[in-house]
Amino acid sequence: MGLDNNARTAIRIGIVGYGNLGRGVEAAVARNSDMAVAGIYTRRDPAQIEPMGAGVPVHAMDSLPGHKGGIDVLVLCGGSKDDLPRQSPELAAHFSLVDSFDTHARIPEHFAAVDAAAQAGRTTALISAGWDPGMFSINRVMGEALLPDGATYTFWGKGLSQGHSDAVRRVPGVAGGVQYTIPVDEAVAQVRSGLRPALTTREKHRRECFVVLEAGADASAVRKTIVTMPHYFDEYDTTVHFIGAEELAREHGAMPHGGFVIRSGNTSQENKQVIEYRLQLDSNPEFTSSVLVAYARAVHRMQQAGQWGCKTVFDVAPGLLSPRSAAELRAQLL
Amino acid sequence: MGLDNNARTAIRIGIVGYGNLGRGVEAAVARNSDMAVAGIYTRRDPAQIEPMGAGVPVHAMDSLPGHKGGIDVLVLCGGSKDDLPRQSPELAAHFSLVDSFDTHARIPEHFAAVDAAAQAGRTTALISAGWDPGMFSINRVMGEALLPDGATYTFWGKGLSQGHSDAVRRVPGVAGGVQYTIPVDEAVAQVRSGLRPALTTREKHRRECFVVLEAGADASAVRKTIVTMPHYFDEYDTTVHFIGAEELAREHGAMPHGGFVIRSGNTSQENKQVIEYRLQLDSNPEFTSSVLVAYARAVHRMQQAGQWGCKTVFDVAPGLLSPRSAAELRAQLL
């Protein structure tokens, strides 16, 4: 709280896992002059990894414990299903860290496991950073606190959904494809007006798929399997476009995403107030990585201040995210 | 940080000053079940004040020191020019408090005076809460921290500007009037596209005045005096509408405001990211009051945790603003 940042040496970041997210973390650290990548840690053969930055060392995962003295904060770039539930508690016993654990229903359990390890190891471990969970969560909490007599709406998109794209690609007869989640304009307009509408799943979002068929596949059968798929598509209006493999590669290789959190509420019978937080992301993984890196700075400061244990974005004061001193922030950005 | 809120007794709020902001604070406290108004303190004759809530006690300002044991947090509702520079340091010596000091250039000086008093008194005093400074400041800091390679834009409006309305009313020949600040649509669209345009003052906002003339006043002279007024209007495109006193009262009595903070930046050469925070307020003072009251909750918790001294919104973790426990926030809003 109110820490002045007089550190003269860079915060040393260890990157655990080097997929889209790990590469994004490397790029984000390069944009923050008070940080440096101490090393990339991988389960693959380190010789096969080519970091973007010249001279960035790549190590095998099992060398991590031996590098404890050379790393201030680990940024974990693995998946929420198989990697983080095991890695975060294991590593929090020895390192301060940030992860992007995003299985909402299992957050309390993950928190408890990481907290026990971090308390014992006197480290600071922040879980579930990113944009949702993350920035969107902060705006849900603050919106509700500022306008207690109100309603909160989260819309996602327009954006590529990894989970839904995977579901489309598992349909028999599909050679490739992607799925975009799209907020329904009418719903967004109603919410923005402060009317607090009751909206069904179908009224809030629609889904759009771009699919490449296998040779000889039956388009109408594929379409039907997609649009009726339980949990993934049956509660939505879904459009399926069949395209060629070249068009898929050319037009649908990017990973845009974003969305809105809108809180509308009344401060008196007459007066409505609307708060909106919006993200428009060309690259979902690169933005998530940028959030992880800003929180790595806060984690380092909290660890240094003796604030050990598991934390979330709800526990981090905004000033801790900035490389600027508290006095500078007050003078220039307040 | 990560405090659990198990308080069974309401946080007792003292309201200092009972104008638009003070009335808004009373209304906001009524919407938060973990808080209660302990008293309203005024420099006017207490017998002349009618609080909205039945049974809310109204006291003369000088009885405040004697009520120290019955108040947890004071919310100061005076003005930044004459009231707060004197009141906030004086009262912070004895009470935890929140103010809405909004003279940006004098914040460091105000901070130093309040900090000395609060450190000595072991109180927690948060200055400059509201929406700008306040919510907009948080979004400027976080936007810059998440996208260091980028640019931040603040737009205000459409909204009634008190300072500019006062300036219009001081023009000879003007019997009454209001001024609206309006963001220029083309500028907002350019900024949202992530282009990072360089915008002049004139390109960002325009100004619109609704003016009632005194009998016999020269409309074209009044218009010229307004649109060429240094500091207030000369750098903007300003439209002046002349209307009747009845229309002014009927159509321009509300105090809407709002605006945008937009951060756009690159996370790689190819990928632009845009973060937007937007407020649409039917009542500027009522929203400001709601922010003050949420921060009063945080201030009370920070005081209880021994985090004394002067604070700003940059020092407050989002979870501290919510009446819910940290565990509940993680389970339900993360």
TrEMBL record, chains A, B:
One of its GO terms (biological process) is diaminopimelate biosynthetic process. Its EC number is 1.4.1.16. Keywords: Amino-acid biosynthesis, Diaminopimelate biosynthesis, Lysine biosynthesis, NADP, Nucleotide-binding, Oxidoreductase. It catalyses: meso-2,6-diaminopimelate + NADP(+) + H2O = (S)-2-amino-6-oxoheptanedioate + NH4(+) + NADPH + H(+). NCBIfam families: DAP-DH. Homodimer. This is Meso-diaminopimelate D-dehydrogenase.
